[in-house]
Here is the input.
Amino acid sequence: MIVLAHLSDTHFDGSERNAERAARVLAYLNELPGPIDAVLVTGDIADHGLPAEYEEARKVLSSPHRMLFCPGNHDVRRPYREVLLGVSGGDEPANEVHRVGGAVVAMCDSSIPGQADGLLADETIAWLSTVLAQAPSDAPVFIAFHHPPAILHSPFIDRIRQHGADRLADLVRRHPQVVALLCGHAHTPAATTFAGRPLLVAPGVVSLLRLPWEHGPVLDYGPPPAVAFHILDDGWRLTTHYRVVT
Ligand SMILES: [Fe+2]
Ligand SMILES: [Fe+2]
Here is the structure.
């Protein structure tokens, strides 16, 4: 069994409010006895991509559990790499592959510098293709990124989703061991499918983006933060629980 905790969109901006919400989620996760194999944070970690925001994120997003990251449209690759991850690197896409338990977790960079919408760049598609080709056939694969590659019926986010997703869909269809795609960006706990696999959206730590027919502000800062737990059992059947952290 593999258990992944999944949070997204912490938007560290120097404010006490946003830092407190992320700290609350980490305190909740960190006190769990387990078994949590990794905690995934799928982007929009900083709000303006500033080094000081990543300094704060690095302190708050620390855990005895393994932490895995990918950037979002509010992140800036160079300080994201240097300050949050503590690795050198340039402005190229920040892609990372990890072994978690028996699974392969590909953390992909779907950001386009300076833009709100997303795309897996040519080099990211090539990298992911290699990751999938090299994954053992008995290893389940999770693919994570920031931007959902499918319409979620959330008009604001649908306009700035991950575009050009046909190449990703082709890759997923060719690799049956891809068990799920995980993303953020939409600031709503949601579940749909993409290329016949589950596409699971982590809630936004910082806010809730409401649907058009709901009451209340579209971007609602009132509700408490939330996280997802993805549980893959030995039969490769995936279950997701969403949990509000009060
Ligand atoms: Fe966000
Ligand atoms: Fe975003």
